[in-house]
């Protein structure tokens, strides 16, 4: 049995990106409609993020929804993706795949993304392709059944295999962790756990207020050590790089930069992991400002790395490092 807590030789910067396009709102038709204008810019954002990752030599983890590995799909006799046994949810009465069009990448480019997978593979700085489930199923929801998860994971592994990709890291849809033992069965070695923010255990309403205060004061985000959990390492998130829609546009981009820099500093001082994450489509909420902010953060990472204080690893690379310690 591995130690539940480990030590690291130095601070590590981890970046993970959740790529989902429309799948992120598969069970939320109103949100899907609202976000469509951002999803449509996601490919452009991905191109620009990849340019920055190359420029600053950063190996990130791209957690891609498995259905985006497809070029097309057809409803079989039993309906859409009938090989996936359904779980039902009291808050969503329709079939899970109701909104997905089941056509091809020409007809519905926001539901397919082989071009995105290829772009990430072809980045000159090696990027990890990871999984964000096949159909954005909520593994941690109490209504999600084990056979749904098994079939979902079977599809992920099968489609990634067609690109010669062995999936090793997993990001839970909506960060709801569940069935970690099944991830182990399917060969995964890491997942991104929820950020251990100071207000995590507060009631929902209060949590939202505290989240706002936390952002407005640019408080230092949590940094963590990986924890061994049922055969995988939990590499918890530290900070969501906030989009600039809704109330969040009131928070200047400099606040995000300052917050991230505090996290990087703390990771260096405590030899822990600062794990930044976001969805590429989040950048579309204000491309100019958010790309500027991201580059500022990457410059800080680069200078700390050049000083020998910090390492940049994706999730898979972090596990490889841990296995050598
Ligand atoms: Zn489909
Ligand atoms: Zn997601």
N-to-C SSE string, H for helix and E for strand:
EHHEHEHEHEHEEEHEHHEH
Biggest sheet features: 6 strands, parallel
The CATH homologous superfamily is called: Glycoside hydrolase/deacetylase
- The CATH class turns out to be Alpha Beta
Q: What amount of the residues lies in strands?
A: 5-15%
Range of helix content: 25-40%
CATH topological fold name? TIM Barrel
Please, what is the average pLDDT? 96
Strand runs, count: 10
Number of helices: 10
Task: Give descriptors for this structure.
single chain; 325 residues; alpha/beta; TIM Barrel; 37% helix; 12% strand; binds zinc ion
Structure report:
It is a single chain. The protein is α/β, with parallel strands linked by helices and 325 residues long. Strand 2, helix 3 and strand 3 form a beta-alpha-beta unit. It has one domain (11-324): Glycoside hydrolase/deacetylase (TIM Barrel, Alpha-Beta Barrel). It is built from ten helices and ten strands. It is 37% helix and 12% strand. The chain has helices at 29-39, 42-55, 114-121, 146-161, 180-185, 204-216, 253-270, 280-283, 287-306, 315-324, and strands at residues 11-19, 61-64, 128-131, 169-170, 190-191, 227-229, 232-234, 239-240, 273-278, 310-312. The model has no long low-confidence stretch (mean pLDDT 96). The radius of gyration is 19 Å and the shape is globular. The strands form two sheets. Strands 1, 2, 3, 8, 9 and 10 form a six-stranded parallel sheet that branches. The chain has a four-stranded mixed sheet with strand order 4-5-7-6. The structure holds zinc ion (2 copies). One zinc ion is lined by residues 67, 73, 80-81, 100, 102.
């Amino acid at each position: 049995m591995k130690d539940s807590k480990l030590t690291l030789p130095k601070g590590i910067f981890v970046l993970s990106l959740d790529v989902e396009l429309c799948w992120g709102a598969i069970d939320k038709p109103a949100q899907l409609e609202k976000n469509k204008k951002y999803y449509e810019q996601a490919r452009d954002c991905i191109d620009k993020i990849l340019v920055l990752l190359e420029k600053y030599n950063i190996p990130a983890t791209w957690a891609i929804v498995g259905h985006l590995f497809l070029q097309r799909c057809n409803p079989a006799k039993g309906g859409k993706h009938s090989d996936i046994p359904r779980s039902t949810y009291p808050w969503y009465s329709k079939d899970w795949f109701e909104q997905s069009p089941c056509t091809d990448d020409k007809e519905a480019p926001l539901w397919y993304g082989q071009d995105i997978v290829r772009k990430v593979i072809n980045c000159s700085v090696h990027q990890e392709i990871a999984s964000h489930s096949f159909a954005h199923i909520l593994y941690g929801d109490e209504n999600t059944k084990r056979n749904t998860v098994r079939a979902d994971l079977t599809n992920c592994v099968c489609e990634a295999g067609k690109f010669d990709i062995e999936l090793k890291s997993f990001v839970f849809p909506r960060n709801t962790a569940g069935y970690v033992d099944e991830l182990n069965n399917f060969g995964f070695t890491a997942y991104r756990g929820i950020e251990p923010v100071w207000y995590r255990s507060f009631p929902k309403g209060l949590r939202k207020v505290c989240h706002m205060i936390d952002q407005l004061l640019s408080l230092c985000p949590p940094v963590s050590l990986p924890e061994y959990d049922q055969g995988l390492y939990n590499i918890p998130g530290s900070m969501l790089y906030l989009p600039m829609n809704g109330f969040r546009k009131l928070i200047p981009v400099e606040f995000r930069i300052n917050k991230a820099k505090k996290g990087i500093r703390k990771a260096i001082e405590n030899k822990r992991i600062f794990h930044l994450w976001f969805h590429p489509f989040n950048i579309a909420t204000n491309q100019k400002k958010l790309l500027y902010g991201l580059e500022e953060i990457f410059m800080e990472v680069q200078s700390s790395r050049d000083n020998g204080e910090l390492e940049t690893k994706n999730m898979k690379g972090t596990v490889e490092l841990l296995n050598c310690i």
